Amino acid sequence: MTIPDTGLRTEPGSFRDPTNQVFHLGGDVLRGLDEQAARDYRTLAGTEFFRTLLAAGKVCGTEPVDPLPGVPWTTVLRHERIPFVSHPYEWSFGMLRDAALLHLEILRAALDHGFTLKDGSAYNVQWRGVEPVFIDVGSFEPVREGEPWAGYRQFCQTLLYPLLLQAHLGVDFQPWLRARVDGIEADQLRPLFRGVRRLLPGVPTHVHLHAAMQRRHATASTAAVRDQLRAAGYSRELALATVRGLTRLVERLDHPATESHWADYQRTCGYSAEDRAAKERFVEAALAAGPRPRLALDLGANDGRYARLAARLADQVVAVEQDPGVVDRLYRRLRADREGRVLPLVMDLADPSPGGGWRGVERASFTDRADADVVLALAVVHHLAIGRNVPLPEVVDCLVGLTRPGGRIVAEFVHPDDPMARRLSANKPVGLFPDYRTEVFERLLGARCRIVRRLDLPSGTRTLYLGIVGD
């Protein structure tokens, strides 16, 4: 929706809290606050704990700006722009756990200083590279003695339950979160934790007891439940104890990345040392052949070799890989190396994140979010065209669709006689891919881009292209 005569665009994912809403004006991210929210923010901004969180980068940069004409809000804030917005179902286990720990750290600091968070959603966290940052400044409000943390249920459904699912059962949480924008319900998880599994850490209290309490109070109003808790002596100290307990639980949860075919792909993919060196030189030259990229996408990033290379020449790199374990391993290495320009995401390029939530636009699709200056499609075209039966014209259209006009595509075409292409074709009907040929790919790419450079790798079975997308 566009507000008449202002040029402001409402953020489709910001409508659930009527006291504040996020807008966009040009390159600015703005938040409007109603009268009560404005009073709460002024109090919050005067606290030492909030200034400390801002200075540490744990809360997104925020400052008040002059009121805008035609905007029905008492106060307007400007936030820093996050380099690339991602969704929790695109994160690895380690990313979701670190997001949960950041949320709990901020909540604990708030409670210590007379504030709380009205929400507990994983969507309130975004990333600067591999550093999580809390973005929902409108969630802070003064704590009312005797009232429970209103965001507890959201925290369980979008953060804790997905972590329990993967840590205790080894089940990837991403499909569960993608299927439901509000997360996993306690009653959905409860049947999976029966028998001895009932006693696994966090399950008795936060799954079974929580589900029982929800059923018990299903017909009671929120106010009635609050009155009962207040009468029973619920206090801020108990809320803090709950947060400390959740923090200890989340810190203990882990799911080390398991071995997979993709985990060792760089060793098994068949590149010679000469191929690898020539490929790296080509990619580096392509990244340097123009203005510094604001955003680069590395599709099929695997261990992040080329994402790291791109990070030396681009402001932000989004490294997309379908294997959650490979992404988690990459995330942990990037964190250890303090690499601040690479954001690793879990995503199957043959089934990328669609639009979701209310009217399908509350959470934007990957295609809508991606507007890259450079797209690296290295050793990925054959996996889509042969491995997933995606026609070559569609593959090229996909790459162009992720690239802004004037942007660059660095594509690798694996010839039909390459060992990896033959391996992918081995279980396919003979003659299924008659158009999977170098000259066909080059013609298709040339029809959508201006090919400015071409290189056959020394092995003779792979060709690299640099194309410029037309305006």
UniProtKB/TrEMBL annotation:
Family annotation (Pfam families): Methyltransf_11
Entry-linked InterPro entries: Methyltransf_11, SAM-dependent_MTases_sf
Residues forming coiled coils: none
GO biological process terms, semicolon-separated: methylation
Any one Gene Ontology molecular-function term assigned to this protein's record: S-adenosylmethionine-dependent methyltransferase activity
UniProt keyword terms in alphabetical order: Methyltransferase, Transferase
Residue ranges of every copy of the Methyltransferase type domain listed in the record: 297-410
Family annotation (CDD domains): AdoMet_MTases
Top-level taxon of origin: Bacteria
Protein name: Methyltransferase domain-containing protein
Organism of origin: Micromonospora pallida
Lineage, highest ranks first: Bacteria, Bacillati, Actinomycetota, Actinomycetes, Micromonosporales
